[in-house]
Amino acid sequence: MGDRETRCNAGGQFMDRGRMNQNGVVQPLLTDLYQITMAYAYWKSGKTDDHSVFDLFFRSNPFHGEFTIFAGLDECLRFLESFHYSESDIEYLRRTLPEGTENEFFDYLGDLTAKDVTLHAIDEGTVAFPRVPIIKVEGPLIIAQLLETTLLTLVNYASLMATNAARYRMVAGKHVNLLEFGLRRAQGPDGGLSASKYSYTGGFDGTSNVLAGKLFNIPVKGTHAHAYITSFSGIEELKARLLKHKLTGVTGDLLELAIKYRQKLSTVLNVSMEESSEGELAAMVSYAIAFPDGFMALVDTYDVKSPAKSTNSNNITAKTVTKAVISKSNAKNLSDKRSTDINETKLPITTTSAGINMTNGWTVHPNGNIDNINNAVSTSTENDTNKNDQNMNNNNAQPHDSKYHACMSQLSQRSLSNLCKKTEKSFRSGLLNFCAVALALNDLGYQAVGIRIDSGDLAYLSCLARETFERVAERFKVQWFNKLTIVASNDINEETILSLNEQGHKIDCFGIGTHLVTCQRQPALGCVYKLVEINGQPRIKLSQDVEKVTMPGHKNAYRLYSSDGHALIDLLQKVSETPPEVGQKVLCRHPFQESKRAYVIPSRVEPLYKIYWQNGKITQKLPTLELVREKVQKSLKTLRNDHKRTLNPTPYKFAISQVSVSDNLYNFIHDLWLQNAPIGELS
């Protein structure tokens, strides 16, 4: 067994490589089969010594934006460093490739390394733009070809993820913390680990992913789930209620203190004692004893009504109803609904364990499905009834029944109002119990951290929480209550944060999962890897789609800056050309449209490429993940704000194109195009 297999098996999927951790799955066989079959065909054709140049680039920015963050370079370099086919790899390829593949080819692969490859790249964490190569690979044709798929898989998701995270950071603002909570929703373990790493690169402050914290030294954050709260039924279940004072060491009864403060707070906050849950209080006391210096509680678990007001013990909890009905319309709409849509409707609505029952025969179930009770008991055949149920459970179904529309109208008014009130009540129960436990901790020398809200109208509830904390701080003379952290989660995306900003939320931290790690708005970046030169001769790929025409030849890239210090345009030149100079007029042309051109007088010229790998070694000192993270923010600051805005950003192209070319390269491209384009014949 080779050294690589030993390290993989002993160290798990990720191997400790010192500065950063190398994914043990990243190895030469992490490629497409056609790379290896092409390598054999190259070998058979005697092209082992052909010198090639490949460009790795993308054609459009993701998420309808105007920038991309380049990430994944470190892992690409680690891959080159460890590139070698092990004995077991060779044996597998002998069994896999077609019969008749010559044995000498497998001997050739067994000796193959990346020592003859030279890799040029822009710095990791730099803003990048379409069609400008972010990596250039030059070296023997076979090895350069074999690198393609692995380099693409290392760069594509990393750059997409870092870009997505950077966009969240911009809309949230620099004073709000962002935590990545997406491991359970990510595309498998590798996707989860990469999401944690590159969301941190893009500007997030931490992750819930413990393994990512260990491997990449990312701050790990987390509290507890609703399961912890619901695991307690009452205070009699508490097996531990005593806690030593942080400074004096004198033991105090945390539960007794919390109950005392809850009685006082009930009057201050105008919350009835019957509206708070004993089980919730017990759970919070238990958690505070376990983590007195890090007490942060989830406060929206229960909807507890006063016995005098409640006539049905099977009422749906606020958590269930909110998830069933509100979540699809998004919490951002609830504030407006509360103030404008709620004109008390006289149509009766009853809430049961089965759902919300309407008098017109419709039922909204806790899972969000809508059924017509009248249809269910009609004389139609069983098959017809099943079809009806199927249609009503389909989110895309558009029933034309007037009763359906009446049901939805009621939901948008009376029931939505009730749901808001239910969510507020569940929240007030949690808030009352949290404040009671936090004040009890204060008596014993500890400071609570804050709360997490996971459902409902996040803007409204965060404002209610902040107001509550301020009232408690003033009433009990505990000033640190003003600074308690409010964390919000619940399927948050860019649009949610923008809406919450407009509503004046009081949230200090967002926990973001699904939309972040799956990049739901655009699941792939679409980087490509194209041959642009062989043995010093340029190569061009022609297509009826001009966007797919490649830029031939070995090129350099420069970023030109305007007099105000912002990046103005990226310029591609042939490597043989003299670099542009500060203060000197440069003709920048659209690569394919003759009339689009402009002179630029740069105030600063930044060469984009550095040699990162040569002669079998990494040639640059690689930055830590923290430094790459800082690089992202510094690079983004070089862009004008209108390039970075979420809605209708200004294209980074100076009215020419996303990339410009020198006059020399423009003529070179078009001459080569004419030489290679077939000439049609008419008859």
UniProtKB/TrEMBL annotation:
Its EC number is 6.3.4.21. The keyword rRNA processing does not apply. InterPro entries: Aldolase_TIM, N/Namide_PRibTrfase, NAPRTase_C, NAPRTase_N, Nic_PRibTrfase-Fam, Nic_PRibTrfase_pncB, Nicotinate_pribotase-like_C. One of its GO terms (molecular function) is glycosyltransferase activity. It is an enzyme of class 6 (ligase). One of its GO terms (cellular component) is cytosol. Residues 449-550 form the Nicotinate/nicotinamide phosphoribosyltransferase domain. Residues 555-667 form the Nicotinate phosphoribosyltransferase C-terminal domain. It holds the Pfam family NAPRTase_N. It catalyses: 5-phospho-alpha-D-ribose 1-diphosphate + nicotinate + ATP + H2O = nicotinate beta-D-ribonucleotide + ADP + phosphate + diphosphate. Residues 374-399 are annotated as: Disordered. Residues 29-156 form the Nicotinate phosphoribosyltransferase N-terminal domain. Keywords: Glycosyltransferase, Ligase, Phosphoprotein, Pyridine nucleotide biosynthesis, Transferase. GO terms for biological process: NAD+ biosynthetic process via the salvage pathway. SUPFAM superfamilies: Nicotinate/Quinolinate PRTase C-terminal domain-like, Nicotinate/Quinolinate PRTase N-terminal domain-like. Pathway: Cofactor biosynthesis; NAD(+) biosynthesis; nicotinate D-ribonucleotide from nicotinate: step 1/1. Catalyzes the first step in the biosynthesis of NAD from nicotinic acid, the ATP-dependent synthesis of beta-nicotinate D-ribonucleotide from nicotinate and 5-phospho-D-ribose 1-phosphate. Helps prevent cellular oxidative stress via its role in NAD biosynthesis. Belongs to the NAPRTase family. This is Nicotinate phosphoribosyltransferase.
